[in-house]
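Friendly challenge for the regulars: who can give me the structure tokens for this chain first? No prize, just bragging rights.
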Amino acid sequence: MPPMEYSKSGTVHTSHALFGASTLTSRFCAFVGKAVFFLLSCSWSLLSQSNTGELRLKVTDPSGLAVKTSIQIVSEASQYRRVLNTDDQGTLTLQRLPYGVYQVRINQPGFAPVSESLDVHSSIPTEHSIGLTVMTQSESVTVSAPNTLINPEQAGSVSRIGSDTIQNRVSSVPGRSIQDLVNSQPGWLDEGNAVLHPRGSEYQTQFVIDGIPLIDNRSPSFGPQIEAEDVQSLSIYTAGIPAEYGRKMGGVVEVNTLRDAQPGLHGQLVLSGGTFDSAGAFAQGQYSRGKHTFGASASGGMTSRYLNPVVVQNYTNRGTLGDFSANYQRDLTANDRLRLSLRHDLSRYELPNEQLQQAAGQLQTADNLETMGIVSYQHTFSSNMLADLRGMVRDNANDFHSNANSTPIEILQHNRFREGYFKSNLAISHGRHEIRVGVESDSLLLHENFNYSITDPGQYDPNTPLTFGFAAQRPDLEQAVYVQDLIHLGHWTANVGLRWDHYQLMVNRQVLQPRLALSRYFPSANLIVHFSYDRVFQTPSFENLLLSSATAATTLNPVSLQLPVSPSTGNYYEAGLTKVFANTVRLDANYFRRIVNNFADDDQINATTISFPISFRKAIIYGAEAKLDLPEWKKFSGFLSYSYELGNAWNPVTGGLFLGDDADIPSTGFFAVSQDQRNTVRGRLRYQPAPRLWIAGGVQFDSGLPFEFQCSVSPDQCIADQVKTYGQQVVDRVNFDRGRIRPAFQLSASAGVSLYKSERANVHFQIDGQNLTNIVDVIDFGGLFSGNAIGPSRSLALRLTTNF
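First reply, four minutes later:
Bragging rights claimed.
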């Protein structure tokens, strides 16, 4: 193999590589056939997400007849603000409502205004009737709005991002809009190519798409993306994580793409474009009639800056992506609901070159294809008991290809997996308790196919074979059982859970995980204080895990170290508070500490999409976070967040594959984890000078990530070599004495205007300017951990949205 650089952070650096293309059409057709068979054979499936409920409203006039009207539902704590219509029977069903207090308002002509406060704190549907009264000409009614900025019964901390924030977000490079929304929250960092790192965790983010957990890497360079236009809401956990979730526990992002059913045809069309030759289109439609609801969406995008380039010239970085989804829901009875959905996503892109590679004519390309089918069924036994279950099948393929001019090595890779997932859940409400009991099973069949051919032998150890090939497959079998109890006791709320996980791939492990989240509400101070403890069991990344664990890999060099990568175990602690000031501003502040054994890391080949899982003896990560939310005050709204984080990992390496000189790994000592960014600030303030016009400004500050720089010659020569590889502008943004990238400060500005608005449709236009300071935003440097990565330069984006 090529000579590799091993740094304290466990990075192994080899040459660049690419995926080969696959036959997409035949694979898609074969998968659809299997998915249909599976969906028809499944009889039960999970529907709900954790800590969400359902509200069923019925509106009548004084005589008891149904009223077709508009209802406004607001919860500032959950960032939920919708105006929805009842059907001809006066009914409206609101699904997937995050637990909290909601304000329900009705202003129907000829009737007195209605404003009620409703508490949603159970996954079992709540039915509520609203009777309108006739208002005489001499009668006046004063409607007071309850404070929904705080949820008195929230046991732990959770961040919510609602539809308004999503719709008016700052535009993103195609393929990373969800990542950018999550990255705006305190405690989250993204390194090169929008790989999210929650509180120092590496590749331990779990996305839960409509109740289905996806534990593979979902960054743009590893998996196809769901664009923000297709998302209704996000719920984000970094502590107090319900026992329902396991395996990837750095952070959990619940993504809800399903919309509340509205009578008739409704939809959205979004056109976007901007700098870097970026263009995109999204279309979504939903038709509801009676007990049937049909929905579909499709999107496509292209850009000349898909990944973070390694040099400012942004060589070979084009990408195209698209997705299609369809779903069908039917209320079989008042107590039974069935839903079917299908999603197909793909992305094709180039890998950015360094200057020397560009001169050699290197071209590396990659693609990712994913198809997913889901069937779900929900049954309400009584007002105190609900069963919901879900089944899913998924086919995912990653291909990587290098051309003959690749230097100093040409790599081909074709990895794929097929997954079958099943989960069942039973919710029981009894007095002060809401008990949830569930089981889940996840089975994957992993396929790996890796080949290389050395094109410049002078760059390698003489004992390195000029060619190498590896192919293997192996099942990954995982099961879990969990129970949790959400307890309401006066102003105290506790979420107590216990989870058992079994993991069987390269090693066989099982563990019990107690979870506890406890809070106390002080009404007079509008204050919640909370504490949480999570025992976590985190499975290693399965990308290239078979190659890393195969004895055949050690034939690449007679000197090698090979250790199986075991799951991580750890303890997460958090203490914090939520405080509302003047019923206008909410402050969330937390202190956290994480102690993890077998700390999971990934060894990525420079800026490519090929990585190998590794682990260290332990890591301790701690810090503090704060966020101020201003949902709406006069004409202003916005947020400001701050994160302080410090993390260290301890040698020796306890899992992974290391060859040649890199096998001589230190057995003692500690080092800063690559996400050890001490200070991070995100903020945005929006001002609405007119009902149909708003302007906004944003700020972003990053104090700089650490890096390891090894030099076998004089320091001046090393720096000169880096200038030759990456350019002077990049090297100037690096502090070699401190071993950190220099701080970066960026400004952004946005404006939006409503071009047309009626009862049937509205058209909105938005313009965004980002990195107005035009700083060379070096995220990672020198191919050390995740390769070199440079954020976007000054850019402009336009977005036209039509809702009907």
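The mean pLDDT is 86. The two ends are 58 Å apart (CA to CA). Your move, everyone else.
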